[in-house]
Every structure is written in C-alpha cells, then in structure tokens.
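Bumping my old thread because nobody answered last time. Still need a sequence for this structure:
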C-alpha cells in the first residue's frame, strides 16, 4: 500500500501543501483589516479550493513534462499518463464544486481563473516570475473571498493585500529562479525546500500584523489559529514523509 501511495505523494509534492492555505488566510485577513468586517467561512472554503488548485498545477506540470522530467513518477513508470490526467481533472472539478457550494463571490472566481491561467502558462514556459505570480494570485483569492456582499471597495483598501501579493510573487519568483538546476545538486534542492517552507513564517507574520489591526473582530482568532496549524502541519508532514521531494 505504501509503495503505491508514495509515487502519488511525490507527484503532488504533498510536503509543500501546508504552505498553500496560509496564502489565502494572509490575503483574507489583510482585506478584513481594511474593511473592518469579514467572515471565516468563505476564507476556509477558498483555502480548501486553493489546495486543489495547487494540486491541479502540479499534476499539469508533471503531465506537460512527462517525457522530460527525469526522476518524476510519470517518466519513472510509477504513475500512468492516463491516471495523471484523471487526477488533474478531479482537482479542477474540486475547485469548481467548492466555489459553487461555498457561494464564493465573483471576485474570487476572477482571481481563481487568473491563477489557473498563470499556472498553466508557467507549466509550459517555466518562467520563474510567473510561478511567483501564481503564489501572489493565490494570496489574492483570500482577499477576494471575503468580498461577498460588498458593493464596492475603495482602492486604498486593496493596498495591503496588493502589497502582500507583490511580496509573495517576488519571494517565490526568486526561489524558483534560484532552484534552476536543483535536479543535479542535492544541496540546492535542500535549500529550495527550506526556502519554500519558510513561506509559512511569512504567512504567520502577516497574519499577526493584520490581526493586531482588527483584534475586536471574531474572525481574527480562527484565522490566526489556522495559520499556526499550517506551520505545525508542515513540520509534521516533512518529518513523517522524508522521502517525498519538496520541489
């Protein structure tokens, strides 16, 4: 059973998954701090959807590189191309279902569509800064998720989530650029994994900063606790799955 599961864990780079919801939490709390109001429910739905969008992007990445990505599960014969395509479709379907069932606002749909496009183009161009853009857009899905029922948002309210998205884009874009050639350099591979993991600390820092601006809102505490849970989950998963590559 473990031998069958391990290739799928490597296929989805599952050790990095706990870094994904934190983007959404940080973007949402930055937006909530500006609006002075917000609900946790759409944020958690958006975070779950982003997890599946992340898995979709990685599945698409391996499908595109099925003939060239030496060492990955598809070229190794551990996962068939057909099974990978089914997994990719199911991830896309999960995002769609969560968005519909969770009644996420139109702004979220627009940002999520942009994220899908950016991830698909990155997988076919390998532009490092486009990968950074994907993480910035992921953060903005959190900001957009809390806009349900808001008639209009003053441009000034978007400065904080926009600045965070830019920071995320530059950070992950830089890490992706640095990671070039990691396949043949174990030390660089380890460093890349550590840099990706460090994103959780940036997320927690952003959550704390914006939480201090809206401590009176009931939504603040669950978002902070969820951010801390992501850090614990990341450390636990990496300890339990040392054989699963982080990149």
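Sorry it took so long. Here it is:
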């Amino acid at each position: 059973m473990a031998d069958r599961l391990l290739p799928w864990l490597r296929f989805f780079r599952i050790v990095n998954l706990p870094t994904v919801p934190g983007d959404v939490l940080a973007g949402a709390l930055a937006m909530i701090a500006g609006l002075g109001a917000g609900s946790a429910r759409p944020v958690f739905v958006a975070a779950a959807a982003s997890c599946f969008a992340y898995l979709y992007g990685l599945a698409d990445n391996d499908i595109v590189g099925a003939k060239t990505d030496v060492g990955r599960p598809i070229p190794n014969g551990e996962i068939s191309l057909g099974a990978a395509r089914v997994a990719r479709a199911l991830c896309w379907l999960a995002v769609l279902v969560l968005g519909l069932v969770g009644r996420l606002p139109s702004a979220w749909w627009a940002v999520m569509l942009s994220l899908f496009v950016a991830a698909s183009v990155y997988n076919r161009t390998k532009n490092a800064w486009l990968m950074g853009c994907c993480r910035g857009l992921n953060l903005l899905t959190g900001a957009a998720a809390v806009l349900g029922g808001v008639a209009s948002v003053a441009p000034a309210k978007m400065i904080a989530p926009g600045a965070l998205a830019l920071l995320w884009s530059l950070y992950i874009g830089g890490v992706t650029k640095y990671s070039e050639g990691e396949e043949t350099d174990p030390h660089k591979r380890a460093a890349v994994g550590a840099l990706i993991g460090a994103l959780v600390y940036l997320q927690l820092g952003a959550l704390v900063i914006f939480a201090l601006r809206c401590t009176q809102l009931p939504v603040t505490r669950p978002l902070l606790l969820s951010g801390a849970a992501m850090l614990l989950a990341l450390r636990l998963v990496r300890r339990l799955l040392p054989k699963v590559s982080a990149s």
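The chain has one domain: 11-147+155-240. Let me know if any region looks off to you.
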